[in-house]
Amino acid sequence: MDPKMAVHRDGDVAEVVIDIKNVWKVFGDRGTEALAAIHKENLSKQDVLERFNAVVGVADVSLNIRSGEIFCVMGLSGSGKSTLVRHINRLLEPTSGRIVVGGRDILQLSAQELRNYRNQQIAMVFQNFALLPHRSVLDNIAMPLEIRALNKNERLARAEQVLEMVELTGWGHKFAHELSGGMQQRVGLARALAADPDVLLMDEPASSLDPIATARIEELIDELRTDFSVVIVTHSMQQAARVSQKTAFFHMGDLVEYGDTTQIFTNPVDQRTQDYITGRFG
């Protein structure tokens, strides 16, 4: 396999918070064997599927994300964007590669260190909101702090504070089914913010929302971001253009190019990016 080298057009010298090096994810029982054959025989993705019944989800990806950035990972469904981002909190384990977050190789963390990392350094807002239906809004938001064993008064006070930040004051004792989709997504965002993470991951955070709710979520992301980095998975060029400083474009597991969002959208250097922007894909 000889994927085109991704082009990084970026002169930013801010601190690197996430450094991803040569990450591969090959799905299947013979994924490790398939990857060895890829390196030895230069197999194509189709070869890997036919010989090993394995699928290359992410192919030799290297990129970095800097402090304070809103970074969009963009591409068609099945392009590998969500797969890559799920490696950052180790919801998926790479077949090979290295991932350093905040100066630590997270692939070397022990089970306890990984739990602490997920609870204290990184947070995720899911596409389907992932609120617990038996918990009130406040209790959903306070859950990361409960895991940290903060006392009830402290965690509920923090939950109330964050609830105000996402403009849902007075809704704390409601349950998820009593909220609109946009409100539920704001609760998911509040839960992530309550943990005061260094990195916030968002997987298609507005894909099921109407345009007004989408716009408010995007505004909140920009308003509330202070000293943490945001990584957003999206298939929407419009969303990437509105909220992100940097964008990475994926196609069939390959990182095609990444860097300044405006540069990529106005002057893409790879034909696959150009095809996506002009609507030739799909």
Summarize the structure in short.
The chain has a domain at 131-191. 39% of the residues lie in helices and 24% in strands.
Please tell me about this protein's structure.
The protein is α/β, with parallel strands linked by helices. It has helices spanning 31-41, 45-52, 81-88, 111-120, 137-147, 152-165, 181-194, 211-224, 237-243, 261-266, 271-277, and strands at 7-9, 16-27, 55-66, 70-75, 96-101, 104-105, 122-125, 199-203, 229-234, 246-251, 254-260. Strands 1-11-10-4-9-8-7 form a 7-stranded mixed beta sheet, with helices on both faces. Strands 3-2-5-6 form a 4-stranded antiparallel beta sheet. Strand 8, helix 8 (211-224) and strand 9 form a beta-alpha-beta unit.
Give the overall shape, derived from the CA principal axes: globular
Strand order of the largest sheet: 1-11-10-4-9-8-7
Run of helices and strands: EEHHEEHEEHEHHHEHEHEEHH
By DSSP (H or I, 4+ residues per run), the number of helices equals 11
Distance between the ends? 24 Å
- The total beta strand count reads 11
Question: Mind telling me the C-alpha Rg?
Answer: 19 Å
- Sheet-strand content, in percent, reads 15-25%
Q: In terms of quaternary structure, what is this?
A: single chain
Average pLDDT rating: 88
Which residue ranges are poorly predicted, with pLDDT under 50 across at least 5 consecutive positions? 1-9
Task: Give the helices and strands, then pairings.
Elements: E1 7-9, E2 16-27, H1 31-41, H2 45-52, E3 55-66, E4 70-75, H3 81-88, E5 96-101, E6 104-105, H4 111-120, E7 122-125, H5 137-147, H6 152-165, H7 181-194, E8 199-203, H8 211-224, E9 229-234, H9 237-243, E10 246-251, E11 254-260, H10 261-266, H11 271-277
Parallel strand pairs: 1-11, 4-9, 4-10, 7-8, 8-9
Antiparallel strand pairs: 2-3, 2-5, 5-6, 10-11
